[in-house]
Amino acid sequence: MVKVPDSLPARMYLLAYDLRRGRMTRCGGRLGYVLRGAALAELYLDGRLVDERRGPRPGTPGDDPYGVVAQIAASRPRSWQHWVRKDSGAMVRKVRDELAAQGWIRVRERRVLGLFRTHRVEVKDPRVVKALWGGASSALRGKPVAHVNSLDAAAVALAAAGELNTVLPAQERRRHKRRITQLSARTGPAAGAVRRVVRAHHAAAGA
Known about the structure:
Blueprint: H1 8-15, E1 17-18, E2 23-24, H2 30-45, E3 49-52, E4 55-58, H3 68-73, H4 80-85, H5 88-101, E5 105-112, E6 116-123, H6 126-141, H7 150-161, H8 170-175, H9 177-187, H10 189-206
Antiparallel strand pairs: 1-2, 3-4, 5-6
Helix pairs in contact: 1-2, 1-7, 2-5, 2-7, 2-10, 6-7, 7-9, 7-10
């Protein structure tokens, strides 16, 4: 059995990898929202965040690997959407560097025109991405929603909310809309917040 990362943000980063093209899919900034949403969802599922007046508040003490609970604890009450947007670009770099340090990916740096730094990501073992796809596919089409693994349910909900076409192309999102809604309900408020932030992102880009 292929081992996959334990953390939901790490899983979502790898699910955004396009195995056919051998590179990260171009998400237009949405990946950061998905990863922040994944961190929030994981904390909510573990009870370290609770939903209070339409926003997250600290719950049961525990690990806070990305410092999200600390940010929320130090702030006045804010919406889930605010915390999805907060430091979303930095979140991509943080998760990428974590995966590289743990040996899941290889990151190659190069300069465009000798000036601009870019990073090319390579997944070391494609079977890891395929295993994550398998978990998401099973959550979408398999057993009753109540029996789906919570991280697989969250992966589908976040992939749909963030429009990650490597996992759920638009046609699949439409076809399985009811099932995605059910899986999103199991995930807590974070997936819905990602969906609203992404819609606002599209609206701003089209204005």
